[in-house]
Fold this sequence. Notes:
The complex is a heterodimer of chains A (about 525) and B (about 500). With about 525 residues, chain A is an alpha/beta fold. In chain A, about 40% of the residues lie in helices and about 10% in strands.
Amino acid sequence: MTDHSKSDHSASDHSASDISTSDITRLTAAGIAERIASGDLTAVEVTEAHLARIEAVDEKINAFLHVDREGALAQARAVDEKRAAGEPLGPLAGVPVALKDIFTTEGVPTTVGSKILEGWLPPYDATLTKRLKAADVVILGKTNMDEFAMGSSTENSAYGPTANPWDLTRVPGGSGGGSSASLASYQAPLAIGTDTGGSIRQPAALTGTVGVKPTYGGVSRYGMVAFSSSLDQGGPCARTVLDAALLHEAIAGHDPLDSTSIDAPVPPVVEAARNGSVAGMRVGVVKQFRGEGYQAGVVQRFDESVELLRGLGAEIVELDCPSFDLGLAAYYLIAPSECSSNLARFDAMRYGLRVGDDGTRSAEDVTALTREAGFGDEVKRRIILGTYALSSGYYDAYYGSAQKVRTLITRDFEKAFEQVDVIVSPTTPTTAFPIGERADDPMAMYLADLCTIPTNLAGNAAMSLPCGLAPEDGLPVGLQIIAPAMKDDRLYKVGAAVEAAFVEKWGHPLLEEAPSL
Amino acid sequence: MTATMSLVPFEDALATYDPVMGLEVHVELGTKTKMFCGCSTELGAEPNSQTCPTCLGMPGSLPVVNAIGVESAIKIGLALNCEIAEWCRFARKNYFYPDMPKNFQTSQYDEPIAFNGHLDVQMEDGEIFRVEIERAHMEEDTGKSLHVGGATGRIHGASHSLLDYNRAGIPLIEIVTKPIEGAGARAPEVAKAYVAELRELIKALGVSEARMEMGQMRCDVNLSLRPHGRAEFGTRSETKNVNSLRSVERAARFEIQRHAAVLDGGGTILQETRHFHEEDGSTTSGRIKDNAEDYRYFPEPDLVPVAPAREWVEELRAGLPELPRVRRNRLREEWGVSEHDMQSILNAGAIDLIVATIEAGAPADQARKWWMGELARHANESGRALDEQPITPAQVARIAALVAAGDLNDKLARQVIEGVLAGEGDPDTVVDKRGLKVVSDEGALGTAVDEAIAANAAVADKIRAGKVAAAGALVGAVMKATRGQADAARVRELILEKLGAEG
């Protein structure tokens, strides 16, 4: 794995560092930050190493839709100048991040994986983008995703699918497949995802990485292109629990520009990640999260994880949450309903694609032609579903009932959290599936989010972290940890303990078992 | 004109039918910033200069509620005797139009901030009519489309359209009445009086200038007829954007006559929107509103519910100003004018101006006389609102003071007003510049009177013989000689004195 030294980095003559490019890209975010702070590495070296890695491997992965080479290097230089001037550096200063292409970046393309925003240069930065920049986190570029975050495989991207670094013929999950795949292929040590029904956690599970959906309202949605406003939540992706915590802390917190953002201190996630422990904790196992449709190897690794938790001193509690069985149905009414309204603005009048504007057609026709050309099938399917669900005469039966289910799920969680501190489950029923396998079967695709959706509907926090490889296919399995709203720190406390125990058991992080690219 | 445009005489229509009205008034609030973003609401700026990602509906942008907008809505609700919701939400009203950036309007649906109120309106004869209020809710305005290249300014026939989003997101309060029944032949007058009263109320609350001619207050007149004695309502028409008090009355009147003609002819009224035409007071068909129109309302997930604390609501209630009708009755008694005169003063938009003029020292009758006379005439001629003329209540009070002191007579005062309106300066400056002082030099006046008597010996003889009424001719001669700059009353006194007659 040391044959990448022909990169830009080998030509640079600064620093006493003898860490090779490939070594740099294998470092954790915390490790990079430490080395930059100590002067062992410069931010420019780190950025160049990752840009070189992207150049070397992303042709195979297609994790990035846009690499902002100049912007990233400019940010890195600024970090190095700060350090040279003796200014204090933040805990992630100089660490690169791969940003999901759903967050606006001023002057840098933002497509949301859709043709309809091809060529759009946003006039403003998302709050999350601003916070990354303020924390001196270097934005390498924008990552691939299912169009408008609608999908579980990244195959719905208008710019081609992303491959799973574990097996290039398989999907990396979605919608944030680009972000997770960039981590698993060492193109970035940190990534940002968004999770409406599992789009952070499911790709994390399928790529053997860590992903966190914070409590709804924990991370600002301002500048995050909306799919389903009441469910969408941005969050951190990383290769380790601590790295995820560091990124979580950098992006979280109240934003006056987002009315749904929580005006309360960010839970102490980094402290929790540094002090992993489950001793004396009550851990719930929900009986609805197993059964038909669950892959044997996934169930096996999950059961082993539960035993591991018990061995670490956790008390395991069986839980019954009957409403969770209705989660998928409710989700596929609420999310399309909100999306049908959120996506109405893409009418070719103000930004993005415009088709058929030849001076003879009406605005209405231009809008129709643009949407026909600019939206993919899954997006159209959900707009139609949502429009139907909201229409008068059907509203109560569909949208109204779905909201009632949502309330029931929230209550089931509340009752569960009276008995336990966290809940664990498999993140996904299966490991990564082959590209193309579910592309024409939306129902099969939707099932990939069976375990993640209830958390979005209730608004609480959840994490996925690797818990081994399924014996039958050798692909990563994710363990989901769910915490009550605003108790995001519990995810990190439990996650760090589980991660440490597994690494000790395996002798190395799981990702080291991935084939080299 | 098509057959549907034939009209039944108003009285005949009312002999057969009973009109039912619903009035929907949109008020643009006078907040400094828009309803859901920090953009300025200042009128008259360069197109699209007062926009941001949020009011342009850019991908990723989010709304934040303007607290002053909510406060204004509650004040309006309280002044309309409404209940104020303890908890309510915004809702998305989904429909497409190029000047609506998100292709949904953030509004309120089944949870309005204020509901179940009433407004008592006073007719010209003093009678009070109670209009029940269904709701008042918050929403945002759309942008403006300018259709270019067509003859009518409407979209049909236009070669292209220009969009200005400066207005997009300006806070609106929509006030909806319950069906107004039982007004009979007075329905058009009730409609006008309601809108007038509402406008006064909005102004008194200080939440908007409510200038109808500038679109800050817009009225939709919904109207249906039913035969006398029938309980259920007929099919209604919705006449949109009727933007003056007079037009509200005319639109209601026209629709009563039109509906009656259709119904008398055995036809059915279409549920449709209609355009009102100022030129001839008619309405024409707009868009058919069948039941297929579906706004797919649902609660706005980007905003948190609005839950005004009861203490705050009570604080706002306690701070409400004297309501316009109450104030008008008080002023009417203070000024000693009739209901009818007060109505004219109200219609002219002169109440506040007269009050301010009195506060600046003028007697009530003088203040009223100048604003409702000379200044109203000027306003009418220049097509401006009374309070838009370049003259202040303080200046009018000064003119009144000069008249009271005998320095000006009415004729000269009118010239001073003309000068002030022409931008020649304040009243004293105009008096100086134009040399408009009354000739009060008794010697000069005496000479002028002597000359007039000498030149009109026959008239003078009549006066000497006791025909005092003939003095007018001599007064006129003196006034002419002094180019109007004499105090006519004093001239008359001098004439009678010199001729030994008793006035």
